[in-house]
Structures are given as structure tokens and as C-alpha cells.
Amino acid sequence: MPRLWSAEQPNLYTLVVILKHASGPVVDCESCLVGIRQVSKAPKQLLVNGNPVVIRGVNRHEHHPRVGKTNIESCMVKDLVLMKQNNINAVRNSHYPQHPRWYELCDLFGLYMIDEANIETHGFYFSEHLKHPTMEPSWAAAMMDRVIGMVERDKNHASIICWSLGNEAGHGPNHSAAAGWIRGKDPSRLLHYEGGGSRTPSTDIVCPMYMRVWDIVMIAKDPTETRPLILCEYSHAMGNSNGNIHEYWEAIDSTFGLQGGFIWDWVDQGLLRELADGTKHWAYGGDFGDTPNDLNFCLNGLLWPDRTPHPALHEVKYVYQAIKVSLKKGTLKISNTNFFETTQGLEFSWVAHGDGYKLGFGILSLPLIKPHSNYEIELKSSPWYSQWNSCSAEEIFLTVTAKLMNSTRWAEAGHVISTAQVQLPSKRERLPHVIRTGDAIILQENLGNTIQLSHQNSWEIKFDIQTGAVESWKVEGVSVMKRGIFPCFWRAPTDNDKGGGESSYYSRWRAAGIDSLVFLTKSCSIQNVTDYFVKIRVVYDGTPRVDMSSLTKLEKAKALFEIVIDYTIYGSGNVIVECNFKPNTSDLPPLPRVGVEFHLEQSMDKIKFYGRGPFECYPDRKAAAHVDVYEQIVGDMHVPYIVPGECAARADVRWVTFQNKEGIGIYASMYSSSPPMQLNASYYTTTELDRATHNEQLVKEDKIEVHLDHKHMGLGGDDSWTPCVHDKYLVPAVAYSFSIRLSPLTAATSGYGIYKSQMQN
Predict the structure, then answer these.
(1) Sheet harboring 346-354: ordered strands across?
(2) Angle between helices 245-254 and 312-320 (to 10 degrees)
(3) Of 51, 499, 583, 665, which one has the greatest count of Cβ atoms within 10 A?
(4) How far apart are CA 361 and CA 358, in angstroms?
């Protein structure tokens, strides 16, 4: 019995063909690597070696950052190494047959492939007065030639499991003829074609592009549809994107008839261009004086052109991982969803954290888990039980990781194959957070339009009574905050925000004036004064900016929002910020964010936070981001998308500290019953990220702009040309209330200690 080829186990044999003269001497000898495998179909299933493999795929254009469409083998190998390292097991050759060496490498590394004919007439809808090529007999020979050439050239490669008739070229008699020829020539593979609605007789797979989750589930559950559904394109990776991809995979993993899909696409197709001043940047449509152009619509990849991964690739690796971990009623289940590979070559480990503090860790000894099998661990018999049982933390997280024990063609030993985090039940009830007010005396001084609050030399805050703004905040004489704290509803738009013309989120935000809000101080008043605390109330009207000369004439009726911020400043230096945001109109679009903004001294660049990370994550793209305590530098958090926009945020942040190299700084956390925050900190302002069209055009400020959001809209990514953030990740324009705690920080204090102090025992 031969060892069969699959993406999991790409077994190859050397085939040798010898030509001999009739008298015996060898005339010629040729050899190649071949794989032995079977591709077949069953009701609602594509089968490889009799198994309904799941397609965890990407679309790949041939692209090199310097030489464009010229193929270099090292670049192909780099692609395959990255694909395998990130649990990608399939590639669609979009939208043409590719370099012959690519097929050999896919056979060798193990990747399922759709090989696609070089046929596309996407723009033909501009010529509807003409007969479509697929309906035109005069085009039949040309179309057949491309299909036949592809099949005849590539037919001996084990990696190819489907032939594709092309891309976005409609459907008609010429496609029917090509499909008939392939089925007669090569019945050993399935046929794929999306054109004509993805369900024509010319395809063996229902293969829609950018279809919504609920629609693919509906098709899979249609008893009259006997073909499997595999998305030929989905999760459009344009800029900061790939939101809610986990929802696709929750559906795929749980719905019979759904068998995966191919993300659009693999790599940003930018080119390295040197400018007159010697600087280099990633160039895109229009940067070469080219007209017409499609601007940055060639930048849809999970990687930058030089193959540096976008943060979204972490999310892809997570949803594509074959080793799954889940927790239900105290039982941890580890599932091996591979079809051919056991867990024999993997080392499992665990680590448990309580409120960000490491409770314990170790190697997780498991029996071998066969393909499509699982192993369950009861809490009481687990190696982390004693740590959990003695833990009084408010939140307890368990992380299970699987690593390669031995090196492979595409990864060194120790490479992480799978990692997942689950939240263990806590024996401690979550109560609203409170502070111990203490008996520190607060000193108040009135300095004209400024009120100065302080306690000895430990801290000092200056409020502008006219504007309600914090003019400065010093800790032990060191300036920490330059200015704040302001309401904020705006974010620098992403590519997905801009998609959809007049119906895009960006267009609707601008039409409503959300992009140009100014916050006019209606009142700023001292509400209460004692020896131990001072309470200040600031009321703002959020009004779209008009000509500055007429700002004083604006009436309340023109305000989109009324914002009430209550500050309670204690002698201890703690500041409780209670925010109440209320829209004044009912016809506003979903909001980009609801939160506060303040500006720190640029020296406060050492960030430590307890939340999801360590990489960029958002409400609809955070499944791969584990809750832990992370330390980073502000400048390192920026994500240099080729076209700037909203970036670099961290989700579900419980607390965060900003400190200088001496340890002086500021602490911020959720407070009372408020949920975790969305954090963003950058030397680039929101305005600057909106202004620049290339990353290298961004100009740094001499301050750090910090956003702490109560709500932040998702990224979306089902496509990039319609407003398609899922409802649960939208931020409706309704009233919101939330609280934040701020506190001075020194080298002798810690974010963890301050956070623990606000928990009720």
C-alpha cells in the first residue's frame, strides 16, 4: 500500500522514465516527484483519500516587491513557509496558471490547490451592448485553448485537487464546453467555477465570493443542494481588516456541507519605490503617474509586499488551527480536527493566570490523539486544579499551547501550531470596583481661570475652569499629562470604513459631521469640596465644526451630543472620571467610537497593560489575542499599513500604565461596573492618520495621543466595498455611561497592585 499524499502528509515518490534503444542501451532518462492520492466527491463533500478535508485557504497572486510579476524561487518558498506556519493548507492560483516551480513546491510542502485558467472578463459589464465572450462562438477556441493548456501542463501534480474555469467571466456555452472537456479528460479531480452565480452546472463546488455567513449556512442546509460549499474568496484583507472571520469558522466548523474557503488575498501588491530624496516606500496605483489606476485596491493582503505579516494573520492562524481547545462545564476538551495526522509530534503545555498574575505552568502530558478525535480533562484531575482551587482572582484564564517537537521542512522545533485560551470559572463574585479614599488632604488653589489641586509634592493637577480641560498633571514634579480629558467619537477611517460610496460609514459620518466635532463647554462647575476630595462637573455640546468666527453663535439645537463628565479628585491622587454621553438626535449613523482622549508627555512611552494582545486587535478580530499582562513601547505599537488609518488598538483592556524610564507615569483602568476598554496610544494623531495617504508621510507629534474607548466599532471585512460590520460590532448612537479610574504612578507602585486594590473582597 503506497503512502498517500495529502497536505498534512505530502508523501512523494520519485518517478523515473527510461527510454531504451531496442538493442538495450539507455537513450534518455527523466524523473520527477509524484504523489499518489484520490480526489472524489460525496453528497455535500469534497473528499481527499476518502476524507472531507477542510479548506483553510488563501488566494495568491504572483507578486514580488521589487520585480513585480517576475517569479523568484526564494519568494515562492517564503510564501509556502509562511502559509504552513500559519495553518494555511490550500491556495487558489488567482487568476491564472502560475510558474511551474510553484506546483512542484506545493507538492513538496503540502498544499491543496485550485489551478485556475487565465480567463476573466470582469469589466465586460461596461460593454453590455456587445455579446459576452462566453456566449460568442468566435471566443470558444481561445477559451478552450487556455483551459486545455492549463490541464495538459499541470495534470501530474498531486497538489491540484480542482480545476477552475477562470474568474468572474460570466457563464455560457463556452464555459459549458470547457467544463465538458475537463470532465472527459480528467475525472480524477473536481471542477470549480464561481462565474454565473457559483451554482451553475459547470462547477462541482458551490463556490461563492464574499457571501455572508448566514447565507452560506442557508445553502449548506438546503437539502436540494448536494454540492459542498467552499468560498472561493472571503474576508477581504484590505488594510486593517478581516473582522468577524471567526464567525465564518464557527459556522464552517459546525455545519455539514461547509468546507472552508480562500481568503482574499495573500500579499499586498505594492512595489518598492525610491523617491527623489532617497527614501523608499510601498507604491500603489497612481504613484507612478499612471492613469487610470485603482489606487490602493491592489493592497488586499495578509502580508506586506516584503512578506512581513499583518496583525490579522494571527487571527487567521487561530481560526485555521487544527488543534482546538474548548471548555464546557468544567471539562476541557482538546480536539484533533486533522484528517491524517495524529498528535504524536506535538508537545502540549499549559499556563494559568489569575487577574494577570501567573499562577502556574507546565507540560501537559496527553495520550496520542488520533485524527478527528478528542481528549477530555476534568478540572479536578487537571494539573492546574490546585492553582485554581486556591486562587481568589476575579478572572482566571488557562492557555493551552501545542508546539512541534521536531523540525519540519517549514518550521523549526518549538514552532507553535496551536494556542487557545479559555476562562476558568472564578470562585469570586465580580463586584463593582471601588477605591479606598484614604485620609490624604487635598490642597486647592484658584489661579484665575485655573484651579490647581495637589497633595504635597506627590501630585498636582491643573483644571481650566473655562474649558473644563486638564491643563497639566504632574507626578512628583514630573509632567505626565499635557492636556485632556476630552470626549471622542471619531477614528481615522479604514479602507473598509470608506467602502460603499455614499452609503459607506465614512460618508455617513462626514454627512452627520462626526468627523468635525468640536466640544463646546456649556459649563464647568465645582460640585463639592471637602478636605479629602473635590468634585468637578463639565458639560459639553458636541457640535460639527463650522466657520470659526461663528462658533460663538451656535445654538444648542445644532449639537449632536451632550456630554457630562464628572471628575472626583481625591487627596490620594486618584481621579474617578464618570462619563455620560447622550445623542441629541435619533438619525445618527453608527459611531466609530465612544470614549475619551488625552495627551501624555512623549516620555511616557513605556506601556504595560492587562488585556488582549500582544498584537493589534479589535472587537470583531480578537479571538487569537490572549488576555495577559503585556509590556510595550508606544512607537512599537504603530502598525504601518501602506495607507494609514485606524490601527494599533488593543481590546478588552482592564488596566494600563504609561511610564517614563524612571517609572513616573499614570495608571488608567475600568472602574465601578464598567466593562474593559479599547486602548490606543500613538505619536500619530487621529487627524494625521486620516490625512496621510502613505505611511512614510505620517508626522509624529511631541506627545502621545491616548484613547480609552467604552465602545469601538468593529473593522468588518466580509468585503471592502459595502458597509458590512456585523450588527453586534456596531456602536449605535444611543446614550452611554461609563467610568474610568486614573491614578499617579511611581517606580514604587504597579498597575497590578493598584488594580487589585479596587476589587472588593
Answers:
(1) 357-364, 346-354, 396-404, 416-424
(2) 10
(3) 665
(4) 8
Q: CB atoms < 10 A from the CB of 735, how many?
A: 11
Cell numbers representing residue 279 in the block = 527614501
- Sign of dihedral through CA atoms 509, 512, 516, 521? negative
**Which residues belong to the active site?**
168, 233
Distance between CA 550 and CA 568 in Å, rounded? Answer: 34
Q: How confident is the model at residue 558 (pLDDT cuts 50, 70, 90)?
A: confident
Look at residue 430 in the predicted model and tell me its pLDDT: 81
Rounded Cα gap, residues 408 and 363, in angstroms:
22
Q: What is the identity of the amino acid at 152?
A: E
Distances (CA, A) of 451 to 302, 448, 538: 51, 8, 14
Nearest to 146 by CA among 124, 168, 166: 166
pLDDT of 107 higher than 70: yes
Q: Does domain 321-424 have CATH number 3.90.1150.10?
A: no
Q: How far apart are CA 653 and CA 673, in angstroms?
A: 14
Boundaries of every domain in the chain: 39-312, 321-424, 467-515+582-759
Q: Top-level CATH class of 39-312?
A: alpha beta
- Phi, psi angle pair for 124, to nearest 5°: -70, -15
Confidence of residue 554 (pLDDT cuts 50, 70, 90): very low
End-to-end CA, the chain: 66
Q: Are 486 and 493 in contact (CB under 8 A)?
A: no
pLDDT digits (tens, 9 = 90+) for 642-671: 999 999 999 999 999 999 999 999 999 999
Alpha-carbon gap, residue 714 to 621, rounded angstroms: 8
Residue found by looking up cell 492636556 in the block: 483
